[in-house]
Amino acid sequence: MTEPLLAVRGLTTEFPTRAGVVGAVREVSFDVNAGEIVGLVGESGSGKSVTGFSILGLIDPPGRIASGSVKLAGRELVGMAPRDLRAVRGREIAMVFQDPAATLNPVLRIGDQMALAIHAHERVSEAAARARVAEVLTLVGIPDAARRLDAYPHQFSGGMRQRVAIATALLNRPKLIICDEPTTALDVSVQAQILTEMRALARDTGTAMVWISHDLATVSALASRILVMYAGRVIEQGPIRSVLSEPRHPYTAGLLASLPARSEAGADLPQIPGAPPSMLALPKGCAFAPRCGFASPACEADPDPTLAADRLWRCHHPQGIAA
């Protein structure tokens, strides 16, 4: 069996506060294969972004990875020396953040700041660096890229700035890119263009991606597999078509039911009742039980993960959803 490019096992990330310890990510495990796009979805506060930051070792103190393993191509990243980890970031694994305006330095020309990402990992001439920058900008759909190298971020539209952020992540030809809701702030037409380009990049370059989003529709158009997070834990995962057509967790079913495309025109959208729990005071047993229409006394015990073929879920009553 081929070893996965990314293997996350039992990842737990905590943030000590005056009120107690927040377990933002709890025993998360999943794999990503080379050239694969995996979607990571859930409501705000479910632990999606913290999972991405934990994989790259970007958790600032006093936050910490309390336990677990993150292996990239068989190499353990948790506990790696900071100097070694900096050499891995950008070269073998990269990240595209949600807000390109915060990612790009407003006082540096696009070509100069992108070239810095190349010089951080290898010794090349300035001319060679600029040539590669222009090549990658063209790859993500920036027209007349060589001429735009001397432009500043404010001279680009929001969609173009996001393309620049994606191009920066691609500069050193990483094996894996973690995309943290990179198209959320863009209009629908620009979003569709970027999704098409990202699919082509994964197919043509073999770069794997973890696509973090709260938008099931976007993930369904992009990913081959999906992981659904709730209260810091993966509660369901599997092939995208299988999970979306036959959800095995009531939270997944609730997210799907709230999609506008699944409702009649003019009808109120179904909602998941209640709100996500405080990570400082999680309910006993299943964290989703207080919002679940299938909850029973059995849900006071934490559900063990159920494995069936290429699917996984954590629920005491999955057959009720199917019915």
TrEMBL record:
Keyword presence, ATP-binding: yes
Pfam families: ABC_tran, oligo_HPY
Membrane topology: Peripheral membrane protein
Stretches of the chain forming a coiled coil according to its record: none
Domain ABC transporter as annotated: residue spans: 6-256
SMART domains in the cross-refs: AAA
PROSITE patterns (UniProt xref): ABC_TRANSPORTER_1, ABC_TRANSPORTER_2
Gene Ontology CC terms: plasma membrane
Gene Ontology MF, one: ATP hydrolysis activity
Localisation: Cell inner membrane
Superkingdom of origin organism: Bacteria
Keywords assigned by UniProt, alphabetized: ATP-binding, Cell membrane, Membrane, Nucleotide-binding, Transport
Annotated GO biological process: peptide transport; transmembrane transport
Residues that span the membrane, as ranges: none
Stated family: Belongs to the ABC transporter superfamily.
PANTHER family, sorted: DIPEPTIDE TRANSPORT ATP-BINDING PROTEIN DPPD (PTHR43297:SF2), OLIGOPEPTIDE TRANSPORT ATP-BINDING PROTEIN APPD (PTHR43297)
Protein name according to UniProt: Peptide/nickel transport system ATP-binding protein
Organism: Phreatobacter oligotrophus
Taxonomy of the source species: Bacteria, Pseudomonadati, Pseudomonadota, Alphaproteobacteria, Hyphomicrobiales
